[in-house]
Amino acid sequence: MPSPSPSPAPAVEPRLRHARAAVSALFFLNAVLYANLVPRLPAIKDQLDLGNAALGSAIAAMPVGALLAGLLAPVLIQRLGSAKVAAFGLIALAVAVAVVPLAGTWIVLVAAMLVVGALDAVVDVAQNAHGLRVQRAYGRSIFNSLHGLWSIGAVVGGLLGSAAAGLSVPLSVHLAASAAVFGVVALVAYRLLLAGPEDAERAGPGDGEPAPAAGRRLLGHATGRTVLLLGVLGVLASCEAFVQDAGSTWGALYMRGEVGASAAVGGLAFVALQGAMTAGRLVGDRVVDRFGQRRVVRVGGAVTAAGMSLALAVPSVGTALLGFALAGLGVATLFPAVMHAADELPGLPHGVGLTVVSWLVRVGFLLSPAVIGVVADAISLRVALFSVVLAGLVVLLGGRVLVAAPAQDREPSAADVTAPGGPAAAPTTPRP
Prior knowledge:
mainly alpha; disordered C terminus; Growth Hormone, Chain: A; disordered N terminus; single chain; 20 helices
């Protein structure tokens, strides 16, 4: 007797489709805004007559600003809501980027980049918090696609900036026009985001019970185990920083110095890693819905370790590009899964888990180039890049703490989030 065919998934409400489109736009804009500036950095360098070290130190003010201001995100989210913080934060970020070419001195440029980094960090936490709200309302995974759109936005922003530079559009005109257009898009998106308290999409402790009122989740309710798990999630997120840095900072150097590739081919290591990671995020929701976040991330850790091992053990152009691509594909769903798990940890106020993880991954991006560089100088770059293999193994082992199910619209139990190898959470259906 044939098994009955599965019933079709309930239709998604128009308001949820609109909210998903709106939060997708926020992720896209967040990437476009700074990426749009990157190709114009040489013009800023010439405009201020800066040396390489001066420009580099000014740009380094961005992560410093992010680390200083990022921890303010939970306070803003609890007071204003993730929708308002994300949308209006993007408008402020657009204005801050537009102000960069108006800097007349190096110290003003440093201050401007500090503000850009601070706003970017706050927006990053808020948009992730709202994206998880929409995912809970959907009852299935959509979070990976949001991060995939961020990756696409980074590429689009780079292309826009390159086109403006190629057409010799004045720097101030280019960034002012971008701020105006993108600011209007953020404002329109805000009107379509979810209203109500941050807990509105969470079910209460019993079936059909309302979610707790906003602001009820207090830091004092967090257990020591919750704090420990938050640290583990931060380590997992930092592993992605090491993998991405391997492609962006060291990929071309490895291809040219260790593999003997030409300058043109050397740059393809970064393209292979980022392209595979973006593709993995765009299809990641379907894979996560089928197999669960925990399993997908842990398999991804193994793929990352195996891919980079191949690139380092067999140094040829083909194997190296394949290895970098596998490394990027392996971490495609890692950061979205870590952010989801951090947001589900019991006893933390809104945005605190997301903020801590976001803060720690920025620390990872600061440490990775220095760590790999020191080992490369002491031994070799080939040996230093084995840190990526280790990162993959850490993800394989540490991924046991992740949420098993892709999306939940209820407050999780400790077993759902923390029990290594524990049972998967019960599947959920979209809210009517």
